[in-house]
Design a protein that fits this description.
Elements: H1 5-15, H2 22-40, E1 49-52, E2 55-57, H3 59-64, H4 84-97, H5 102-109, H6 113-119, E3 131-132, H7 134-146
Antiparallel strand pairs: 1-2, 1-3
Helix pairs in contact: 1-4, 2-4, 2-5, 2-7
């Protein structure tokens, strides 16, 4: 069962115990997708993740929240409905990564194989729209999840 990255993004902003900037949101989406692929072998959302300079990014979500720049995104007043298995997974990822800053999450993602492989040795300051594949996330997070 998948949902849209837009729905997951709104849910993250509503459920996070700490402020969420666009940069932080992007990394949380990456970890939600990656860990679900690693644990369950399937994606949470269908949109692709790209390996940008500042780490993994879902371009459609970046554009949707672009106006916030580096400031916290304001949650929408209407509660977001997400199926229980997905909401439980998102809450677990927020518990593990939600207290980290955007800069900390960026630094961590830059050390991980999915982002590194997608950029294929590009200079860290070089722009890229390369896709971080589901297979690379499934392999990387699957090893972490299953040893």
């Amino acid at each position: 069962m998948t949902t849209s990255a837009h729905t997951i993004a709104k849910f993250i902003v509503q459920e996070s115990k700490t402020p969420v900037s666009n940069l932080k949101l992007q990394k949380l989406l990456y970890y939600i997708q990656g860990w679900n692929l690693g644990i369950h072998g399937r994606p949470v959302f269908t949109e692709q993740i790209q390996a940008w300079i500042h780490g993994p990014v879902v371009p459609e979500i970046f554009q949707a929240y672009r106006q916030y720049k580096w400031t916290p995104i304001i949650a929408e007043p209407e509660p977001v409905k997400v199926d229980k298995p997905i909401s439980d997974h998102v809450i677990a990822i927020l518990g593990a990564f939600g207290n980290l800053t955007a800069a900390q999450l960026e630094a961590i993602s830059h050390q991980e194989a999915p982002w590194i492989e997608a950029r294929k040795g590009l200079d860290p300051k070089s722009p890229s729209r390369a896709i971080i594949t589901h297979d690379s996330m499934k392999r990387f997070f699957g090893k972490l999840a299953h040893g």
